[in-house]
Structure to design on (808 residues):
């Protein structure tokens, strides 16, 4: 745990647009010797080196993707805080939408099943003519008869 | 002597837990009331003994008895008294003791306030509680005994990690544990219901207050931790998607879902099987959090000094409890009757949507936290999953959730009227659109998403107020009548309003802080002036000072706006000699709900000092939101129907009541 004062004044680039890009990129890169910090947040010497490296590449005219590729080639996928979408991270990216889809499908299926059961229960057999007549008589009877 | 007494009390608590975990459950099987009531007395006695044990450790820390290893490693005779006390749980062994103390506290509370529970349900629930305590007493006694003595007592201790020497430590872990461990009650009740094979609306009513209480504490605990990180770590971040933060967020998300599904169960007797599963999952995630923090499988700012045997032991506990409870669930859940049909557009339907989205969000956090571990074990490849991943996957789930949120309370049970609800939300919708338009015009060319997100927050806030206005018929009845109606509304309705309001408020804070935060990184010499967001900060002087167990360098700033001085800020750096570590103490100045934030870096040979200055607009709302949520929880908790308790047969002779 280190008192953080990550980006040092002397690192800041002259061109504000380039500096903004550097900061944006720094937030997506991991300081590999730290505990789950981006190089933007960390004040470890390695993070400083990486920040300077990013700025160097930007100053040399690299695009964001080129900077990322450069760092991955040098340090491996571990340096990316947002893993790329590829074979080994397929499930990482797809499990969330899959869970949502499966959940929604399960709910729809459950609803349909229960609605069907309810519909079957509701479809009671037809009344015979005698029962119809008794029902009509019951309904027609004045309410006062039923008063306690 | 005190250490041995504390140790012995813990062993006695284990013995009591063993009795509590077996005898009452056998009693419930045999329908023997005498055996079943034993749960009550053992739970209370256990609380007493754990209490003694915990107080013993506190006493050892306060007296700086360095013959005890735990005190030697984490204390120092010069440490201020408050940190001698809070230092008790600022380490692995002590925090485990706090964990089991809180577990025993909840067991005791169920024993005291559970008089209106059916005898067998109480016996079974406390029995399950006994299993959990047994497992953790064994863990402490076998792998993490805080009372171990040192053969050659040193004269001075090694001091507590300086970052933890902060008032935050007094509140954050106890609150968090009250939340984590509080969910053990819902878990125990869920398992008890599965064992009994019977569950009804009354069950939901008994479980709901416990869940609500745990959820409140967890909400406050997480918010506290976030604020602590914000001011202590010195770069103004308040959420890092750190694995251990995720470990606390997962039970919170599952617990929030549980809170909502329990409402459906209580009111409509539906979603029973799902509610039971959520209760199991929520506590399982709390256990997982405990495992992740203490096993050393994760690297994190929170990870305790680790030891593989502990990791294996907790993994074992985890497998037994999660595996066992899910097996029991798979076996018994079909015996729980489903009830209460409802149309998709209804209050139940809205709460189901809430559950779907919250559990998916929880799953996202789960996957993101554990995927790198799994991948490394399986293929040896190391990848990182950090904030950018979570922002991309987690945030989109909250958009539909927040859009649907105001509709929920306005829909009727069973079959709702979406058009009607939409009509009543006109005002909220218009307010949201106005907010978006105004912000767009004002920040033209700026971030495009931020005004939309603020609009969403406004929609949630006005929507929450609309619900109360509708219920009290404000604007449709004369004001005095509406006010009387508002007073007469159930407290739970007010609780809902405040909690939902809190969500909107927190969202405003989050969006403003991340979008319109201004930052200045600079090297200043005394006399220099820095300008940030319309404020001028003049560095007047740099001074040194000696604290009780540290040396401190302070930088004195005068802050002015438009040439008028408005106050002083003194950020500092403390260096602790014993551990050779230093901490930054950021200076904060609140202006309304926005804050100025100054933290110090290294000093150059020339006498200049590196400084980071932020202006963070609306930042305090991030924590006011959770406070409002917890306040809503408190209101709900005080609702009449929970205080009165569940209905029960009027003339049941207590004690002789058959265990049905």
């Amino acid at each position: 745990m280190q008192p953080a004062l990550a980006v040092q004044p002397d690192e800041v680039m002259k061109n504000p647009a380039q500096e903004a890009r550097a900061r944006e990129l720094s937030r997506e890169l991991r300081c590999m010797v730290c505990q789950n910090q981006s190089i933007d947040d960390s004040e470890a010497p390695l993070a400083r080196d990486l920040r300077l490296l990013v700025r160097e590449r930007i100053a040399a005219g690299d695009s964001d993707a080129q900077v990322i590729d450069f760092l991955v080639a040098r340090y491996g996928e571990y340096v990316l805080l947002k893993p790329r979408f590829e074979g080994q991270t397929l499930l990482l990216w797809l499990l969330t939408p899959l869970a949502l889809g499966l959940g929604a499908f399960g709910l729809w299926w459950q609803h349909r099943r229960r609605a069907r059961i309810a519909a079957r229960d509701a479809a009671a057999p037809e009344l015979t003519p005698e029962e119809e007549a008794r029902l009509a008589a019951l309904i027609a009877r004045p309410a006062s008869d039923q008063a306690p | 002597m005190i250490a041995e007494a504390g140790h012995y009390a813990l062993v006695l608590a284990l013995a009591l837990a063993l009795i509590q975990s077996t005898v009452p459950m056998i009693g419930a099987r045999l329908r023997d009331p005498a055996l079943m009531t034993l749960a009550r007395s053992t739970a209370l006695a256990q609380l007493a003994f754990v209490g003694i044990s915990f107080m013993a450790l506190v006493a050892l820390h306060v007296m700086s008895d360095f013959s005890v290893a735990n005190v030697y490693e984490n204390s120092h005779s010069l440490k201020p008294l408050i940190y001698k006390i809070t230092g008790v749980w600022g380490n692995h062994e002590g925090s485990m003791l706090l964990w089991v103390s809180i577990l025993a506290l909840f067991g005791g509370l169920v024993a005291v306030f559970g008089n209106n529970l059916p005898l067998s349900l109480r016996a079974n629930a406390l029995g399950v509680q006994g299993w959990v305590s047994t497992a953790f007493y064994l863990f402490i006694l076998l792998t993490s005994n805080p009372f171990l003595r040192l053969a050659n007592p040193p004269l001075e201790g090694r001091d507590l990690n300086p970052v933890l020497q902060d008032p935050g430590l007094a509140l954050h872990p106890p609150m968090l544990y009250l939340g984590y461990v509080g969910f053990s009650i819902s878990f125990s009740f869920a398992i008890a219901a599965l064992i009994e094979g019977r569950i009804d609306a009354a069950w939901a009513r008994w479980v709901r207050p416990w869940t609500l209480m745990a959820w409140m504490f967890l909400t406050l605990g997480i918010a506290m931790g976030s604020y602590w990180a914000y001011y202590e770590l010195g770069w103004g971040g308040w959420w890092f998607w750190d694995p251990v933060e995720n470990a606390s967020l997962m039970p919170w998300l599952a617990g929030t879902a549980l809170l909502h599904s329990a409402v459906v169960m209580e009111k409509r007797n539906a979603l029973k099987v799902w509610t039971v599963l959520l209760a199991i999952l929520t506590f399982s995630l709390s256990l997982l959090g405990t495992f992740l923090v203490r096993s050393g499988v994760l690297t994190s700012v929170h990870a305790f000094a680790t030891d593989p045997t502990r990791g294996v032991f907790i993994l074992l506990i985890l497998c037994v409890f999660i595996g066992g409870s899910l097996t029991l669930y798979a076996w018994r859940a079909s015996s729980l009757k489903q009830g209460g049909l409802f149309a998709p557009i209804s209050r139940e339907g809205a709460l189901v949507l809430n559950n779907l989205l919250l559990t998916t969000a929880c799953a996202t956090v789960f996957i993101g936290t554990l995927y790198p571990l799994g991948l490394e074990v399986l293929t040896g490849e190391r990848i990182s999953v950090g904030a950018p991943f979570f922002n991309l996957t987690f945030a989109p789930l909250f958009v539909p959730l927040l859009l649907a949120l105001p509709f929920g309370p306005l829909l009727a049970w069973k079959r709702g009227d979406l058009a009607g609800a939409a009509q009543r939300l006109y005002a909220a919708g218009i307010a949201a659109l106005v907010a978006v338009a105004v912000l767009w015009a004002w920040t033209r060319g700026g971030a495009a998403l931020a005004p939309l997100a603020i609009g969403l927050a406004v929609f949630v806030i006005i929507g929450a107020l609309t619900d109360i206005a509708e219920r009290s018929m404000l604007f449709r009845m004369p004001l005095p009548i509406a006010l009387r109606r508002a007073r007469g509304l159930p407290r739970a309705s007010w609780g809902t309003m405040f909690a939902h309001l809190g969500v909107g408020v927190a969202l405003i804070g989050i969006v403003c802080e991340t979008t319109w935060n201004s930052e200045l990184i600079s090297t200043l010499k005394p006399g220099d002036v820095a300008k940030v967001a319309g404020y001028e900060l003049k560095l007047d002087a740099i001074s040194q000072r000696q604290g009780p167990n540290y040396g401190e360098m302070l930088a004195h700033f005068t802050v002015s706006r438009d040439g008028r001085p408005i106050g002083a800020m003194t950020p500092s750096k403390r260096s602790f000699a014993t551990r050779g570590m230093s901490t930054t103490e950021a200076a904060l100045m609140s202006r309304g709900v926005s804050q100025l934030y100054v933290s110090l870096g290294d000093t150059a040979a020339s006498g200049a000092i590196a400084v980071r200055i932020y202006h963070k607009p609306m930042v305090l709302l991030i924590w006011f939101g959770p406070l409002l949520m917890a306040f809503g929880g408190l209101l709900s908790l005080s609702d009449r129907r929970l205080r009165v308790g569940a209905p029960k047969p009027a003339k049941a002779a207590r004690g002789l009541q058959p265990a049905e």
User: Anything to note?
Assistant: Chain B touches chain A through 55 residues (CB under 8 Å). Residues 649-660 of chain B have pLDDT under 50 and may be disordered. The longest strand of chain B covers residues 535-546.
